Backbone:
């Protein structure tokens, strides 16, 4: 063990020393977000060419399944395989805080919402420069059949004259860790799922949504775009629309019932 007694806890020097390091508090945040599944364990055993009892496929082309329970399969894992499974699990946001420390990205103390408003025009300009697409601001989009179902897009991609809006842009200027998560995982974070789908709910002609992540503090990767298409969402827009209709119908019923 190496002792460091040259600074007091909670002093500026103590906080600086903690950067890029994993202590008990950070370890709790880093620990895998979810446990692995039986299928994950079987795939890991297959990858390391470890033999275990499997079923006989019913149809040609089907993959054999493990006969053993998850606990029995886990007993076959080596320490190396266990660490590999942990590394494959969903990473918690603390992992990206640690990555930001190593990249030298300093938190600036600015409130995230304020940063978003300040940097949004800059991010939109970056998108126009990178894609050659022209953007325009808009207030709200409302559903034709019920304008209580709406969306507030950050930008529309200006269509050709007489053509409907088929592309839009959502801009996110997040914390340094959230930005790095979007860059590394190249997906729209789950917390923005409903916002993402709502674009397609209220705009039947919309085919593509560009989620722009922008943080100039991350000098190596300040700008990142995740493209979302209507096709990949499948039936989700219809499901989200039906859910909102049901909720509003219930509101209408209760308003009528309670307004006497």
Residues:
């Amino acid at each position: 063990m190496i002792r460091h007694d040259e600074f007091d806890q909670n002093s500026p020097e103590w906080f600086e020393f903690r950067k890029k390091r994993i202590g008990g508090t950070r370890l709790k945040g880093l620990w895998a977000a979810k446990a692995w599944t039986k299928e994950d364990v079987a795939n890991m055993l297959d990858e390391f060419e470890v033999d275990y009892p499997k079923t006989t496929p019913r149809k040609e082309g089907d993959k054999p399944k493990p006969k053993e329970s998850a606990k029995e399969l886990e007993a076959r894992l080596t320490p190396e395989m266990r660490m590999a499974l942990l590394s494959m699990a969903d990473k918690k946001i603390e992992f990206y805080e640690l990555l930001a420390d190593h990249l030298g990205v300093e938190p600036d103390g600015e409130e995230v919402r304020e940063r978003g408003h300040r940097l949004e025009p800059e991010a939109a300009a970056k998108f126009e420069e990178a894609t050659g697409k022209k953007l325009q601001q808009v207030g709200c989009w409302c559903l034709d059949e019920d304008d209580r179902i709406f969306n507030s897009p950050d930008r529309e991609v200006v269509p050709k004259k007489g053509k409907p809006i088929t592309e839009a842009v959502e801009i996110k200027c997040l914390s340094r860790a959230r930005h790095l998560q979007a860059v590394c995982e190249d997906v729209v974070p789950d917390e923005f799922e409903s916002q993402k789908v709502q674009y397609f709910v209220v705009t039947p002609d919309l085919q593509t949504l560009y989620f722009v992540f922008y943080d100039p503090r991350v000098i190596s990767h300040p700008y990142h775009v995740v493209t979302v298409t209507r096709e990949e969402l499948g039936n989700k827009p219809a499901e989200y629309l039906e859910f909102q209709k049901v909720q509003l119908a219930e509101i209408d019923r209760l308003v009528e019932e309670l307004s006497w």
Q: What stands out?
A: The longest strand covers residues 208-214. The two ends are 74 Å apart (CA to CA). The chain is about 45% helix and 10% strand.
